[in-house]
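User: Before I run my own analysis I want an independent prediction to cross-check against. Here's the chain; please return only the structure tokens and, at the end, one sentence I can use as a sanity check.
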Amino acid sequence: MKKRYAMVFAVMLASGCGTDESEQPVLDTETDTIEEHARDLPAKIENVQNTLVALKAAEGKEDLQQTGKSLEEHWDLAEAEIEEQYPEDYAAIEESLYPLIAEAKKDSPDAAKLAPLIQKSNEKLNVLLEKASEPKKKENEVELDLDQGNS
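Assistant: Structure tokens:
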């Protein structure tokens, strides 16, 4: 019986070790599902692209507006990082994405106006996704040829 109490005490003690409540993320039911799947830049870009697919398939005013709002939320999570790391791509994407979000959030979104904006945005995001998926070299990083002298 003493072993059981000792084990329970040890488990309770260990579960509290290493955690500081101030370091725990605050749960926000509005954005947690979005942020949960957006840990790195390629994942954030893919989330934006998936929302574009949903927007293309959306039917009805409310569905378009809600999906447009979701698109804006997904973009907001990636926007600063993209602007900092890929400023040219950011500028190109915003030319079609911002008008797309604005149209989708209108009281009466026009699906005919959305289609070409969705297409352009997705194409630009594909280009960015390819770049973001490749490991980026640091400015001062030197490539080493480890096969030197093995001819």
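Sanity check: The mean pLDDT is 79.
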